[in-house]
Structure formats: structure tokens, C-alpha cells
Design goal:
This protein is α/β, with parallel strands linked by helices. It has a single domain (3-132), classed as Rossmann fold (3-Layer(aba) Sandwich), CATH 3.40.50.2300. The protein is built from 5 helices and 5 strands. The protein is globular, with a radius of gyration of 14 Å. The relative contact order is 0.18.
């Protein structure tokens, strides 16, 4: 990871890819004008948030039915993001987990949610709106 990138004039986008299974959107993020930082877990994202203040965080909602008090590890990330001014969170989710995601978005502010399969044009439009919001 290139932490010095967070000092560039471009806004930073933090990409949290835990499961993946879809194309890399890093070229799209860069095309829209973001410096990209990528991590493979919410825990790593939380550590990185101590060093950077991303303009946008793109993360997956991975519903975990084995959690008693939470729906996903994403809740920890969303709780931390509330302390960072002007950070927008975009969540990718499986359509069959929309009901569980609704519980999460009722408790935490989320900028946008995009269902799989992710439409690159829709993602680009969302990222451009986040730059001006």
C-alpha cells in the first residue's frame, strides 16, 4: 500500500474487498479522479483509517448470520466512519441480502448502495456525485 498517496491533491478512495469475485474497479476509481487504497478486510480498513481520511469508502456488505449482535463486520467500519467528516460510503451487496442491509442502513448513514452485479456506469455516476456532495 502506498500511504503517501493520501497526501496527493486527489481525493482518496478506500476500497475494502473482503470476498471479491467481481472485476477490479480500481481503474474506474482512478479515471474518476481518486487515489486508491485497497485492503482485504474491515480490520485492515479500520487500521488504515487511523492514517488517512478517505473521501469515499467502497465496501461489500457480507451478511454473517452467525453474528449475534451484528449483521456484518461492516458495522464496525460504519461506526468509525461517523467520526470522519465528509466521507461517503458506497456499499456493494447481494440482492438476497437487501433485507439485512436495510437494518444496517437504518442504523448508520450510507451514501449509496449498489446491488451485484455492479454496473460500472452506475458506479461511476455514484462516485462523481460523491465528489460534489
Amino acid at each position: 500500500m502506498n500511504y503517501s498517496a493520501s497526501h496527493s491533491s486527489k481525493p482518496t478512495l478506500l476500497s475494502v474487498i473482503e470476498l471479491g469475485g467481481y472485476p477490479s474497479f480500481s481503474p474506474l476509481y482512478q479515471k474518476v479522479g481518486y487515489t486508491v487504497e485497497s485492503v482485504t478486510s474491515v480490520r485492515k480498513a479500520l487500521d488504515l483509517l487511523k492514517k488517512i481520511n478517505p473521501r469515499v469508502i467502497v465496501a461489500e456488505f457480507n451478511f454473517q448470520s452467525d453474528f449475534r449482535d451484528r449483521t456484518s463486520s461492516l458495522e464496525s467500519l460504519l461506526a468509525a466512519v461517523q467520526r470522519i467528516a465528509d466521507t461517503k460510503v458506497i456499499i456493494f451487496y447481494e440482492k438476497d441480502h437487501a433485507h439485512q442491509l436495510a437494518k444496517l442502513t437504518a442504523r448508520f448513514p450510507v451514501y449509496e448502495t449498489l446491488a451485484f452485479p455492479i454496473d460500472p456506469a452506475q458506479l461511476e455516476a455514484s462516485l462523481r456525485r460523491a465528489q460534489t456532495a
